[in-house]
Amino acid sequence: MRLTTFVAITSLAAASTTAMAATQIEGQYLEVRSNDVFTGACVANSEMGLSGEEATLAWTVSNGSWNDVDLSGLSVVAVIRGSATLGHTYYDSMPAKAVVIVDDAATAEQQKALIAFAHAEAGELMDDIIEVKCAEITVGGESCTEDGCASLKAGDLVEISTRCLGNGDHLCGNEKAFYPPLTKAASAKPAFTNVSSYTAKDLGRTWSISDARSAFVGTFAR
How many Å apart are CA 134 and CA 121, to the nearest integer? Predict the structure, then answer.
């Protein structure tokens, strides 16, 4: 009886340890591309190879740490420009360049950890970071039926606003998530982009995109 009890307690402790390790860091994820991600072939075929080189990826940590540094309540944004349509099987979008915007509320140690976390999530898209900027990052988590409403501002560099997709956003009639998210987001749904802009010239191009089916809104957990 004692051995059985000991085994049960040990198993419970191991399961608890595994659960803790599985949720080292978690929060909200937002991604906006410069082409439709929720679309059908009728639109996708007109965009691939001609657009979609740009993306803005944003992580807001609700709680947790990275590299033993607490990042709870902080955000980091990566603005990417690839060589071709990002995420498409037939186009090599590498090499890519990235500008990273770190939360101005973070300490120097936290900023390094935020960059390391974003790099781990985005992979080779962030292998070439050409500039790191610091700005106030404000995030809105407005709730809506399909959890597609989000907003983000990073100083005067980035502005994003999204909403849920609706029946009026179907053009071809056979739309789906044609492109997957560019990162390891645990759960992300396509959303409608009201506006997405980037004003700095580090990547050789600025942009302002509106009224597009080009966003993903979701969560991450590591």
Answer: 20
Instruction: Quick: pLDDT tens for 168-185.
Output: 777 776 777 888 999 988
- Structural domain spans, the chain: 24-221
Q: CA 30 to CA 170: how far, in whole Å?
A: 22
* Rounded-to-10 torsion of CA 221, 81, 85, 216: 30
Single pTM value for the model:
0.86
Strands (E), the chain: 25-33, 38-39, 54-66, 69-70, 75-81, 97-103, 129-135, 137-140, 150-154, 158-163, 176-177, 187-198, 207-221
**How many alpha carbons lie under 13 Å from residue 162 in its C-beta half-sphere?**
32
